[in-house]
Each structure stands twice: as structure tokens, then as C-alpha cells.
Amino acid sequence: MTIQHSPGSDRAETERLRGRIADALDRARRRTIGLTECVDEAELVEQHSRLMSPLVWDLAHIGNQEELWLVRDVGGREPVRQDIDHLYDAFQHARADRPALPLLDPAQARDYVGSVRDKVWDVLEHSPLRGNDLVQDGFAFGMIAQHEQQHDETMLATHQLRSGEAVLSAPPAPGARVAVSGEVVLPAGEFIMGTDSDPWALDNERPAHPVWVDAFAIDAAPITNEQYLAFVDDGGYERAELWSERGWAHRVAAGLTAPQFWEQDSGGHWWRRVFGTMQPLRAHQPVVHVCWFEAEAYANWAGKRLPTEAEWEKAARFDPATGRSRRYPWGDIDPSEALANLGQHHLEPADIGAYPAGASPAGVHQLIGDVWEWTASGFEAYPGFRAFPYREYSEVFFGGDYRVLRGGSFGADQVACRGTFRNWDHPIRRQIFSGFRLARDLRSDER
Ligand SMILES: [Fe+2]
């Protein structure tokens, strides 16, 4: 029997999709406003770190990308501010150079993003949300909501870097609900990596393709502050033999002695600066703000290694009962506060064991949320990759000096976090909310 869709049910489906798009755009904008209204004008235009843009640049850039894709491209409308396109093109100006540009001031930037968004509501109302790849299932709208949320996470990292009084607040992340430790073994076999079916998945997550993964063991949880501190206390930062040649050169040149934002008091106790407040190191919280080279050195010290990207995704998505790949470790339903620490509901990772309902079928915990997890893998195209909707989204980064991070952090919104979602950064970067877990090959007696 074939199911006939009536025009009425199609209309209802399209209206539901419009509602989902409006929710995603609205949630992103509320967050953007929250991150830019809590500091004064001087702080908005100031550069808090050479690694970051002034917050006012991110703000207007969010509006500019929304104008380019949704107002002009999808909507076919007249430009709002074509004259400023070049100022907000991330490829034309490095972050360090952005403060010197003749940027919109905070009031102008707010007006601009507001007038773009007003036009977008009209475009959304009139778009059929089908008929070409760009609007099919609301893709372009989903892409723009993800883009805004990714910049919100970047702005959150800028807030972590700024000095001065705390301006953000949120309840502490939850403690453990169950005890989680040790490793989980995943047997050898093929699984489907990437996706063809997630409508808002970006080009680099596509297409779905089979990947053979040898048997491996992966940590049931990310490495904690307590575990990482044992590496620090064991002289991890002084022992060149634990580091790769590049990693050691960076360790020395950058003067690394502990994760970023860690401070030791005269009594030998460790503290962490978290968005302007000093907090005692939380022992069972995943370590955050470590670079790839630090993760690599820790892995050498522990006699293990970082998981490959395929291993990470298999641990996060493979369902041994059905053999299919899920959207998330817990299944196909969207994340919620019971399943994962996402969406800036907290300003820190949660303790290990805080999200038992979010674990994978094999018992791997906290793959989604808390901290971005470094993998061993460089950023490469999947077989059959097709750049969409533009080469600059992913393709120009393939093969560069990047490592892939997976799983999202407490500062990532669910619209920009899936079992297939790929993030990438230079191996020296640690202002991002990055941590890691370890993996290893099985010994012959374990196979
Ligand atoms: Fe951007």
C-alpha cells in the first residue's frame, strides 16, 4: 500500500517545520542578546584576546551572514547593507585585525541584526521550504541558526577570556547520578558514519558511508580534572619524552604548565577561573581548555591514545541491537536537559555520571555536551563529499593543520550538535571548551 499525502497534511507539515525554524532562530537570537547586553559599549568594541573578534564584530557578522543567505539568496530581496559585506567576511580579515576596521558601533549593529531578522520572518513566511536544495526541509534557515549558535559559543569563549567582574551566571552543572569509570570495548565491525537523512546536517557530515572499525576500547567518560592533575603532579609538563616533537616545542614556546585558566595558590591547591570567578578545581568534572598537544601528552603518559574520529562516532552512534547508527548516543530524539549538558544552561561541564540517560547502548557516557572531545584525526572530506552550499564552509579547511573535535560542549546549542557533527581547530588551540577521552587497541588476549 502506498500512503497518499493530501495537500492538507503537507501544509500542516510545512507549518510545523516553520515553527521549528522560528524556534531555532529565536533561541539563537535570545542567546546572542544575552551575551552582548551584559557588558557595556566599551567592552563590546574591545578585543579581549587576539584570538577573538570584538563581540560587536560577531554580532554584526551574525546579521550579515543571515542577510546574505536568507534575505538575498533564499528571499531574493534587496540588500539591507551591501556596503558592509567586506567588513564581516571572515576570510578577508583575520580576527586580530578586526578591531581596526570601521565596524558598525554597538547601536548600529543591533539595529542592523534586528532589521535583517524582521525581513527573515517575512522570507520564512513566504518560502515553500522545498523545491531546491538550499531551502529543502528548511536547510538554509537551519544553517543560519547553527551559524549564530556557533558564534554564540565563540562569544562565550570570549567571555571566558575577558578579565574583570563576572557578568554571566547560571546554576552549577549537576553532580554524579551514577558511578562511571573504566573503559567500554566495542567489537570489530562496520558501521555507518555520517548522514544522508539529517536535514540540517552540514556538508562535511555527508554522505553516510560504511566504515570498518577494528575492535577497540574507549573510556566510558571524558578525562577528569582529578585524572589530569595526576599527570601534572607526575611532572607531565616537564617530561619531553611524553610529548611529540611539535607538542613539546609548543609547550616550551607557550610556557604551558597546566590547562588554561588553572591557578595554584600558595598552599598548593588548584583553582579554576570560570567566567570571572575563582572556583576550587572540581575533581570529577571533565578537564576543559586543553589543546590537542596536551591531550596527546596525557595519552602517552597514560599508555593510551586519542580515539580516531570513526571510533568516536561509532561509540556515539552504533546500536548493536539493530546495527544502525543513531542520531545521538541515547537514540534519535532531540537532546534535553536530562540527556546532555548543552545550550549554556550551565557555565561548566558536569561531573562524570551526571547524565546516565544520555549514555550509549554500550555504556559510553557524556559523549554529547560538557566538553568538545579532541580526536586523533585530521579534518578530511568523507568519500563522495560535495561542497554545499559554498566551498568556504568546509572544503577549504580539508587537509589543513586541524584536528577534529566531537560531541559539543556545555556552550554548544543542540541545533549545532549531533552524533555526526564535526568541529575542527588547530592543535594548539585551547580557548575553546575542549577536553578529551582516551582509547586503545585491544591486546591479543582481549580479542
Ligand atoms: Fe561565521
Descriptive report:
The structure is a single chain. The protein is of the alpha+beta class and 447 residues long. The protein has 2 domains: 7-161, Four Helix Bundle (Hemerythrin (Met), subunit A), CATH 1.20.120; 183-225 and 289-446, paralog of FGE (formylglycine-generating enzyme), CATH 3.90.1580. The chain contains 9 helices and 12 strands. The strands form 4 sheets. It has a 4-stranded mixed sheet with strand order 10-9-8-11, covered by helices on one side. It has a 3-stranded antiparallel sheet with strand order 1-4-12, with helices on one face. Strands 5-6-7 form a 3-stranded antiparallel sheet, with no helix packed on it. Helix 1 (7-37) runs parallel beside helix 5. The chain is globular. It starts with 6 loop residues before the first helix and ends in a 6-residue tail after the last strand. The structure holds fe (ii) ion. Fe (ii) ion (FE2) binds at residues 61, 65, 90, 147, 151.
Which key terms come to mind for this protein?
447 residues, alpha+beta, Four Helix Bundle (Hemerythrin (Met), subunit A), paralog of FGE (formylglycine-generating enzyme), 2 domains, four-stranded mixed beta sheet, three-stranded antiparallel beta sheet, 9 helices, 12 strands, binds fe (ii) ion, Hercynine oxygenase, EC 1.14.99.50
Helical percent range?
Answer: 25-40%
Q: End-to-end span in angstroms?
A: 46 Å
Q: Which residues sit in consecutive blocks of at least 5 with pLDDT less than 50? A: none
Shape: globular
Cofactor: Fe(2+)
Domain Sulfatase-modifying factor enzyme-like: 181-440
Function: Catalyzes the oxidative sulfurization of hercynine (N-alpha,N-alpha,N-alpha-trimethyl-L-histidine) into hercynyl-gamma-L-glutamyl-L-cysteine sulfoxide, a step in the biosynthesis pathway of ergothioneine.
InterPro entries: CTDL_fold, DinB-like, DinB/YfiT-like, EgtB, EgtB_Actinobacteria, Sulfatase_Mod_Factor_Kinase, SUMF_dom, SUMF_sf
